[in-house]
Amino acid sequence: MRVLITGGAGFLGSHLCDRFLAEGHTVIAMDNLITGNTRNIAHLAGNQNFSFIKHDTTNYIYINGALDAVLHFASPASPIDYLKLPIQTLKVGALGTHNALGLALAKKARFLIASTSEIYGDPLEHPQKESYAGNVDPIGPRGVYDEAKRYAEAITMAYHNVHGVDTKIVRIFNTYGPRMRLADGRVVPNFIAQALRGEPLTVYGDGAQTRSFQYVSDLIEGLYRLLNSDYNQPVNIGNPTEMTILEFAEAVNVITGNKAGIIFKDERIKGDPQTRQPDITRARTILGWEPKVNLHEGLEKTVAYFREVV
Ligand code: UDP
Predict the structure, then answer these.
(1) How far is the CA of 277 from the centre of ligand 1 (A)?
(2) 59 C-alpha to center of ligand 1: Å?
(3) Which of 62, 82, 120, 145 is catalytic?
(4) Atom of ligand 1 nearest to the CA of 269
(5) pTM score over 0.70
């Protein structure tokens, strides 16, 4: 296959590039580098099956030649990024998705949109099944991301229903691993960086809010299977092992041997989802997929990466 991966220089996009190249495909990575970084794909320079185009997908996307798949992964994804870049976040989810779908239609390519557990907002159903419609405040601080992704799902289904594009929607739950930005602001790089510096970990709020963390290789496997399936409805991909942020902080301190403990800070952003856990029955049934990497193993690998960059 010849595939276009938007956001290809980002955390997830760069791991996708690696996977598609390893499977023998040709990859074009596209990124405007506002949150992505060419460091993440530097190891691919010189690979004749790989090319990079610096481009913002909110503008018309031109690709010469055939394409078999378009994977739209471009978007700020960390809450501090999308608060700093609210309009870019809305545009890449709306205009960027529209352009990427138009390209997929023109090239008769499959299309995969990176959606998110954030479309469930601060969920009133737990764990979250794909049938749950969510609890999102459109003008709340997270609305720029949540509504952009909800729109992205809506236009993706419309292109499937109206134009027959073979579309896939993945709802990605909290994912971590090497190549996350150190200053990305999300809990995994924050805690690991603090721990490696011997500083106390900053827990926002009382730390009773929960998340379910998946290691990046599990996500990539799920994405690869979904793209190659004939399924067009949304699929949650995440690790159902749920824990409080306080428990997560303790786990990071144990793994890194950090003795500086934990400090509590005010809630970072109003409307921080209080619980989050994927129901992965659909991924298990349709894709035969489930996560394989436990938190200890995933954190060890991630800590090893951050030791090089802290
Ligand atoms: N969080 C925290 N300390 C930090 C960064 C984040 O306690 O230094 C909390 C944050 O308030 C949220 C959870 O960790 O409840 C996950 O935050 P993250 O930014 O990783 O992503 P989210 O799941 O909120 O999109």
Answers:
(1) 14
(2) 31
(3) 145
(4) 11
(5) yes
Are 237 and 287 in contact by the 8 Å Cβ rule? The answer is no
Q: What are phi and psi of 105, to 5 degrees?
A: -60, -50
Which tokens belong to 224?
Answer: 């690869």
Is residue 234 within 8 A of residue 298, CB to CB? The reply is: no
pLDDT in tens, 228-272: 999 999 999 999 999 999 999 999 999 999 999 999 999 888 889
Backbone angles phi, psi at 170, to 5 degrees: -110, 130
For the question of residue 145 being annotated catalytic, the response is yes
Ligand 1 proximity of 204 Cβ (cutoff 6 Å): yes
Domains in the chain with CATH codes = 2-176+214-239+280-293 (3.40.50.720), 187-209+242-276+299-307 (3.90.25.10)
Phi, psi values for residue 39, rounded to 5°: -55, -35
